[in-house]
Amino acid sequence: MKLTILTTGGTIDKTYDEYAGHLHNVRTNLDAILGVLKLPDLFIRHVQVMHKDSLDLTDDDRETILRFVREAIPSSDAIIVVHGTDTLSVTGDFLHDRIA
Fold first, then answer.
1. How far lies 3's CA from each of 20, 43, 46, in Å?
2. Per-residue pLDDT tens for 26-84?
3. Which of 49, 51, 74, 94 could cross-link with 62 by S-S, CB 3.0 to 4.6 Å?
4. Is 18:30 a contact under the CB 8 Å cutoff?
5. DSSP labels, 41-77
C-alpha cells in the first residue's frame, strides 16, 4: 500500500520553546514517529506542506493543501492530511467541495 501523509501543522507538529514558554509550529515531529513503525507492506511518503496552527490557516493555505492532495492522488492508495483540530472541519469541507 502507498500512503501519502501531508503535514500542515497542528498540535502534533508543535514544539515547546522553553525560553519563551510557548508552543510553535516550526518543524514536523512526524518523521520521528514514523521512524519507529515496522510496517513492511506500507510505503509512506511524507510531504511537509506547511507548519501552521490551524487557527492561522487561510483559504490560500487551503488551496495549497488542495494542490498537494491532487498531486498525491494518482500515486497514492490513501492520503492523510495532518491538521490542527480547530479548523479541521473547515479544511475538510473545502477539500470535499473541490475534489468530490
1. 36, 6, 8
2. 667 777 778 788 888 999 999 999 988 889 999 999 999 999 999 999 999 999 999 98
3. 94
4. no
5. T-EEEEEEEEEE-GGG--HHHHHHHHHHHHHHGGG-S
CA angle 80, 86, 61 (to 5 degrees): 60
Question: In the numeric block, which cell numbers belong to residue 88?
Answer: 479541521
pTM over 0.90: no
Q: Which three cell numbers stand for residue 49?
A: 506542506
Helices (H) and strands (E) in the chain, counts: 3, 5
Supply 21's cell numbers: 514558554
Q: Are 28 and 51 in contact (CB under 8 A)?
A: yes
